[in-house]
Amino acid sequence: MARFLSPEWIAAFNGALQGVDLGALADGGVRAQGGRFCVEEHVAGVPDRPESAGPLRVGLFVDEGAVTLAQCEDGDESRADVVVSLSYEDAAALSKGELDAAAALGTGRVHVRGDLHVLVAGQGILAAASARMAELHADTSY
Fold first, then answer.
1. Residues of the chain with confidence (pLDDT) below 70
2. Shortest CA distance to 22 belongs to which of 117, 122, 135?
3. pTM of the model
4. Non-local CB neighbours of 94 within 8 Å, separated by 6+ positions
5. What is the CB neighbour count within 10 angstroms for residue 62?
6. Contact 101, 94 (CB under 8 A)
7. Which of 14, 130, 109, 4 has the alpha carbon at shortest distance from 66?
8. N or C: lower Cβ tally within 10 Å for the chain?
9. pLDDT tens digit string along 78-102?
10. Are 71 and 57 in contact (CB under 8 A)?
């Protein structure tokens, strides 16, 4: 069982979405079909990550029809169109469907900067791919 946001979990996430047809998932959303965008999450308080390392940066990259999740290394120049900052607990709750994204944003638990249209497109892809993600969520420890 892979821990949420660990390198093993990220690899399993990518395996679950390998070969996904964005045309079938996206309803023509902003730059979603055949385009490029990146939604980057800055997740604070990740277990077993030293506080001095700062938040874990993970990017959801959509590039010419492929969806990939990758940890962004320190020193990487971010090409994120939108950045979402939140705690590990809130990221896990969002992943498990226990926290509504709009409510979390409205109460200040989640902070967003950048192109909100891209955020909506990224969320739409993940929501539409939820059937592919079901096994991953069942095999994830939080």
1. 22-35, 74-78
2. 122
3. 0.87
4. 86, 101, 104, 110
5. 24
6. yes
7. 14
8. N
9. 678 999 999 999 999 999 989 998 8
10. yes
